[in-house]
Amino acid sequence: MEYLGLLNYAIFMAIFIGIYALLALGLNIQWGFAGLFNAGIAGFFAVGAYTSAVLTTEYADGRIGGFEMPFFVGWIGAMLAAALVAWPIGKICLRFRSDYLAIASIGIAEIIRLVVKSEAVLTNGARGISGIPRPATEFPTLAQETAYLASQAAYLAIVVVVLVAAYVLVERQFNAPWGRMMRAIRDNEGAAKAMGKDVEFRRLQAFIFGSALMGLGGALFAHFNRSITPEAIDPMVATFLVWIMLILGGSGNNRGAILGAAVVWIIWSMSEIATDRLPTEYAIQAKYIRLFLIGLMLQLVLRFRPEGLLPEPLRGDRRAKRSGADHT
Amino acid sequence: MLELDQLVMDFSGFRAVNGCSFRVDEGSITGLIGPNGAGKTTLFNMIAGALQPTSGRIRFLGEDVTNLASHELFHKGLVRTFQIPHEFHKLTTLENLMMVPPAQPGESLFSNWFAWGRVKAAEAEVEKKAYETLAFLELSHVAHELAGNLSGGQKKLLELGRTMMTDAKLVLLDEPAAGVNRTLLRKLETKIEILNKERGYTFILIEHDMEMIEKLCDPVVCMAEGRVLIQGDFQTVRSNPQVLEAYLGETTGDAA
Question: Per residue, what are the HEC states of chain A?
């Protein structure tokens, strides 16, 4: 059943792309539209993943939980929790210039990771939380192999629905006066203030909005995996990979963010297949080649196409149909 | 309408404005002149809330506004333009105007998702007003150009245009004529006069072009070295020996 395996793998990959696309959309609100250098995506991802896990799992000794709520309640809870965590962080850190914000947000993500690791009452510590319910897994009428495929496909469908909804909601904001105001703030902060815009409040808004989407991404990941452990909150894969996705796809462009997620994830996971085929003594070293590959890709993009694969469209241009998306 | 009381601004040891006081009456066009480095723009920045004065008070419409931020002052009807145009260069000319009106429904995340009809209705109104403003400034032909691509003079007009998109009461114009060619300049003067007469804007105008000052401004305030040298109508100020000295660097003895 080579064909079935391939299909399974494709679906598996597509689910991850969907989850990463949510993270990239969240980052696009923060960086692409508000110019906020958030290097702590992993932290909000973790908050979302754990919140949903606690809300939806069965009771377990030694940690809070046992609420057994439906998955969508967990996902909404994940967004709210990430937003709630983002609020004080934004309130304090958004006053910094962007490079300082980057440093502060890395630090905060590390703090969240340590809390997750050590506060067993909340998160069950290093063992993590397992038994997270996953929607649409029961297909009793199907044979075992196809039932597995069906459950994967069903989860993919859910991810796609969530992603499309998020895309539509974010795109709406970008094209609305809100987006125009954010672009104005990004262009010239002083003038935006002089035109009556409360820049600090608007930045906080964008930071919270983006973080909520990151929390949702974390929740989707946790329910797909059926478990969440501190290892999943690796800044390499949960923060920097997302940054590369957004920059390669085109920051400021929501479709670019999604495309970037797809391209980078495909290269990332294909390179894993390639390195796994090497003899064991090289395989471990080759893992680092993958990191190098991603870094190289970023360099090439920044050198030859800094605006990304899909550059930011000229929003608000009523002649956009004629001149196309290219405005530089 | 606006009262400045003993304003002082220190920049780490350098005193840019040193005890500056004057008042501006409603409906007037006050000219603010003075040699380079007299502290005119610093004074503007303090009035507009971009800088916090080291000491002194600012009262606007009978209210102490010394410590308010620029966006708060904007909502009270105090709008400024910039000496070096601060256009939003990656927004179109039209968008530069459309972003200005305060409290647009579409600036709320909630309305954009749940009250789209209201947002669109408000947008249509703002757009109409923006097109009217562009027509008034004779900028309609560049409505859809990126503001960053406009000429220097057009950017100056756009700065003025932004003040027209809100219910401004007091408008601070920082060198509206600098870098603007003669024809456009005369046009600009007319626009300012119309706004003053028909829309009741009060203006404070920093300008080096004396023709424009003479034509528009009464009273004229001359600043030098961070303080008010003299205040009065144009002829009084121009014939004052201290003013000549400040501008030409001549001593009174030489001038005599």
Answer: CHHHHHHHHHHHHHHHHHHHHHHHHHHHHHHHHCCCCCCCHHHHHHHHHHHHHHHHCCCCCCCCCCCCCCHHHHHHHHHHHHHHHHHHHHHHHCCCCHHHHHHHHHHHHHHHHHHHHHCHHHHCHHHCECCCCCCCCCCCCCCHHHHHHHHHHHHHHHHHHHHHHHHHHHHHHHHCHHHHHHHHHHHCHHHHHHCCCCHHHHHHHHHHHHHHHHHHHHHHHHHHHCCECHHHCCHHHHHHHHHHHHHHHCCCCHHHHHHHHHHHHHHHHHHHHHHHCCCHHHHHHHHHHHHHHHHHHHHHHHHHCCCCCCCCCCCCCCCHHHHCCCCC
At A111-133, the pLDDT tens digits run 999 999 998 888 888 889 999 99
**Nearest chain A Cα distance for residue B146, angstroms:** 9
ipTM: 0.86
Mean per-residue pLDDT for A61-83? 91
Query: Rounded to two decimals, what is the model's pTM?
Result: 0.89
pLDDT digits 0-9 by tens, A270-319: 888 888 788 877 877 777 788 788 788 888 888 888 889 899 888 776 55
Identify the bridge partners of residue B221 per DSSP, sorted by sequence position.
Answer: B32, B231
Does the pLDDT value for residue B92 go beyond 90?
Answer: yes
Contact A178 B99 (CB under 8 A): no
Min Cα–Cα distance to chain B from A91, Å: 17
